[in-house]
């Protein structure tokens, strides 16, 4: 008699060309990922060849009950690390039946920016450092922390090892390998400063694909924590007081920045970011004011600053970039719950298109 695990792990490709496509989209809050699955007749590698699909937008806060149909447009395909075989994950964005992007569809606006000739010519690269916190399921208290109490002060936990310093490594490693299996360009992981907090990095990715990959990496993480019986939060300051918050530091470069003389282009771009500081902060995540206090490796939310190798600045330029006279910089302001479509496209629009 087959057990449940055997049935879950059945390899469909042994008996049928049919496969399962898990359609993923972003719900009405802007952070609630949703998904549902459908059977399709044979392997597909081009998202434009996948059928559009609909869902009940009144149940996700994206449409009224009397006109609730929202249409999913497939945009990017990834291998499914849960069902494996020929099965796929499909990142979608959302439209009305008339073909108009719904208000919460941030990908549509980002794609327009990235497809503009001026931006496309600069081939913007991104590396996003996604921090997150693992919580105990029944208490919503960080993993490894005594219930109702606190661990020892920060210091030994960052990139730490050992049962008293590292909490949730099995979940984190499972996520790392699952992302690589899926085809996400995940470039690393590490334990963070606050115990129970971790980070994964996605990139380098070009243009709109950066947002697609970060969202699918978040989806995979949520699915794995579901299996592990822990909760993941992207709150930028899950524990108030003297504990580090969680960000999504965004590393960025353009073709001009990567060439000889690129350091001058970087400095000009940073000056443009300074002039639009308030606009960027407003779009960089909810609750970010609780994190950007000027303490715990952050800059104050109200003041723009930049520096070489300065992790307390709004924007950090690496020592290697300064020495080479070209390279990239890191925008340290985005919160862990930022929308990567919004942040990546806004940085490109400000630094490439916008004329002060």
Automatic annotation (TrEMBL):
UniProt xrefs under Pfam families: Gln-synt_C (PF00120), Gln-synt_N (PF03951)
EC number(s) on file: 6.3.1.2
GO molecular function: ATP binding; glutamine synthetase activity
InterPro entries per record: Gln_synt_N, Gln_synt_N_sf, Gln_synth/guanido_kin_cat_dom, Gln_synth_cat_dom, Gln_synth_gly_rich_site, Gln_synth_N_conserv_site, Glutamine_Synthetase
Primary location recorded for the protein, binned into one broad class: cytoplasm
GO annotation, biological process: glutamine biosynthetic process
Domain GS beta-grasp: 19-99
Keywords: ATP-binding, Cytoplasm, Ligase, Nucleotide-binding
Subcellular location: Cytoplasm
Annotated ranges, domain GS catalytic: 106-356
Chain residue ranges for the region called Disordered: 37-64
A GO cellular component entry from the record: cytoplasm
Key word Ligase present: yes
Annotated catalysed reactions: L-glutamate + NH4(+) + ATP = L-glutamine + ADP + phosphate + H(+)
SMART domains reported in the protein's UniProt record: Gln-synt_C (SM01230)
Record keyword Nucleotide-binding present: yes
Gene3D superfamilies to which the protein is assigned, alphabetical: Glutamine synthetase, N-terminal domain, Glutamine synthetase/guanido kinase, catalytic domain
UniProt family annotation: Belongs to the glutamine synthetase family.
PANTHER family, A to Z: GLUTAMINE SYNTHETASE, GLUTAMINE SYNTHETASE CYTOSOLIC ISOZYME 1-1
Protein name, per record: Glutamine synthetase
Higher taxonomy: Eukaryota, Viridiplantae, Streptophyta, Embryophyta, Tracheophyta
